[in-house]
Amino acid sequence: MIVEIDDGDVTVSVDLFAGHFGIDPKDVQPLMRAGEITGRVEKGAGEDEGRYRLTFWHAGRQVRLTCDAAGRVINTSRTILADRTRVLP
Q1: What is the pTM for the complete model shown?
Q2: What is the domain-level CATH number for residue 47?
Q3: Which one of 35, 41, 59, 63 has the lowest number of neighbouring Cβ atoms within 10 Å?
Q4: What is the spatial distance between Cα 24 and Cα 26, in angstroms, rounded to a whole number?
């Protein structure tokens, strides 16, 4: 199981994080608790009804999964995020 969707609740396997972010599976929960792995779940509407977009961030990387209602991954994208400089007024 990589993605499990049950009545709108989404559970993702730690193996996903280990593989995409290059970390040990046992480190996933501590990193999430520390706020070093974050994520967002979006439920599709209109022509995307029945799909979910899961986006996760860690250590300057973004992983985005598009899943169907059964949790099957339809598309995966990985992005290295550029450093951002914030200019203060």
Answers
A1: 0.85
A2: 3.30.505
A3: 35
A4: 5
Give the pLDDT confidence of 53-77 residue by residue, as tens digits: 999 999 999 999 999 999 999 999 9
Q: Which two tokens stand for residue 27?
A: 């480190």
Alpha helices in the chain (DSSP H): 14-21, 28-33
Residues 27, 12, 53, 34: is their CA dihedral positive or negative?
Answer: negative
Rounded to whole angstroms, the Cα distance separating 52 from 65 reads: 8
Number of domains within the chain: 1
- CB of 62 within 8 A of CB of 54? no
Query: Is 86 contained in some domain?
Result: no
What is the extent of the structural domain holding 72?
Answer: 3-80
Supply 5's token pair.
């969707």
Is residue 65, in this structure, part of any structural domain at all?
yes
